[in-house]
Description:
Blueprint: H1 13-20, E1 23-26, H2 34-38, H3 40-43, E2 49-52, E3 70-72, E4 79-82, E5 88-91, H4 106-109, H5 123-134, H6 143-159
Parallel strand pairs: 1-5
Antiparallel strand pairs: 2-4, 3-4
Amino acid sequence: QRYCSLFEWADGPLVSAMRDGHLLLLDEMSLAEDAVLERLNSVLEPSRLLVLAEKGGDTDLTTNVEARGERSFSSNGGSEIHAKENFRIFATMNPGGDFGKRELSPALRSRFTEIWVPSVTGRTDVNVVLERTLSAAVERLPLETHHLVQRLGNIRGKML
């Protein structure tokens, strides 16, 4: 029997990373909607579980749901995904208060280890970054590159 549906489920980065045991980077996490962020709470618990009630029924009757690391929990769809052992989540964010950014809930923050990284502001900071990323090539950088870095620093200073 063929089903006629308007929508088809496609795994996103979170489900794929959980299923395959990969790393997931949530860049600028504080820009996401609260409802989206709250869905992460169960994934960050020791059970590392994600319930996909919105997935709906599997129209491919030959698909082995168990082989994909899922457990179907109802006759009309939905499934539970348990993260593989190597699955990890990393997140970045700027402090709240800027336009569009908000503070994370205490429940969500308690599930992460927070590391504060200060802004790179001085010319010496830029030189350290250049030296560590470009190693020996830094010594051969043309003078124009240093002037460009200096001008960009001046522009940034005027914008702040």
